[in-house]
Automatic annotation (TrEMBL):
Needed co-factor(s): Mg(2+)
A GO CC term assigned to this protein in UniProt: cytoplasm
NCBIfam families from the UniProt entry: HAD-SF-IB (TIGR01488)
Enzyme class name: hydrolase
Gene Ontology process terms (BP): L-serine biosynthetic process
Pathway: Amino-acid biosynthesis; L-serine biosynthesis; L-serine from 3-phospho-D-glycerate: step 3/3
Protein name: phosphoserine phosphatase
InterPro entries assigned to the protein according to its UniProt record, in alphabetical order: HAD-like_SerB (IPR050582), HAD-like_sf (IPR036412), HAD_sf (IPR023214)
Length: 227
């Protein structure tokens, strides 16, 4: 407890806790890479909302339950270096660890379980399947399916999170900057100049352990040797 200046650290998943984008993996798995990149391109050209681009991408990929399980296994195989150690150190210092993502269960839960993050600290969007476990839709009403969703969720959980650090690579993470006590931009997987420009702290090293000194005071590097 001695080093604690924050109560919670909230992690994004894709390109933060893991070294790839889950939707890219699913598109590849389903042979829909071209469709996905077309949608991404037209979304970048302007007027499509995050929700609309998500809608189009998910309809193109149509991932079944088993595909989401495969994504979960892929998450576990491609954890960002230092993630496991970072989570252990934070927990040892009495800091709660959380996951906040627009991605889906069961994949995110599989990752959380592997990393030792409690299931009650895992916040995701919802995906729906039919009785044969085929893709139906995702929860369009969930704030995480649209811009500004992460700030809404952090405010909803504020009482439980307390003084909060958020770490993420993307614009949906950055949008929640004002809702947390410290935002750390993570460019260790994908370097994003826009996020770097807007983040007081921006990490470019490919190892998540580099966030520790910003979170724990008097952090001794030899503490790492315990792990
Ligand atoms: Mg991300």
């Amino acid at each position: 407890m001695k080093n604690r200046k924050y109560d919670s650290v909230v992690f994004d998943v894709d390109s933060t806790l893991v070294t790839f984008e889950g939707l890219d993996f699913l598109a590849k798995l389903k042979g829909k890479e071209k469709e996905l990149s077309k949608i991404t391109k037209s979304a970048m050209n302007g007027d499509m909302s995050m929700r609309e681009s998500m809608e189009r991408k998910m309809r193109a990929i149509s991932p079944d339950f088993e595909d989401i399980v495969k994504m979960g296994n892929e998450y576990i195989k491609n954890i960002t270096p230092g993630a496991l150690e970072t989570i252990k150190i934070l927990k040892t210092n009495g800091i709660q660890t959380w996951i906040l993502t627009g991605n889906f269960q069961p994949a995110v839960g599989m990752l959380a379980n592997f990393l030792g993050i409690k299931s009650t600290n895992v916040i995701t969007n919802n995906i729906f399947f039919d009785e044969n476990k085929k893709y139906l839709s995702f929860d369009r009403e969930n704030p995480l399916s649209n811009n500004g969703g992460k700030a809404i969720k952090i405010n909803e959980f504020k009482n439980k999170m307390g003084k909060t650090v958020l770490i993420g690579d993307g614009s949906t993470d950055l949008e929640a900057k004002e809702s947390v006590n410290l935002f750390i931009g993570f460019g260790g997987v994908i370097f994003r100049p826009k996020i770097k420009a807007a983040s007081k702290i921006y990490i470019t090293e490919p190892n998540l352990m580099t966030i520790i000194p910003y979170i724990l005071d008097n952090y001794q590097s030899e503490d790492i040797s315990l792990y």
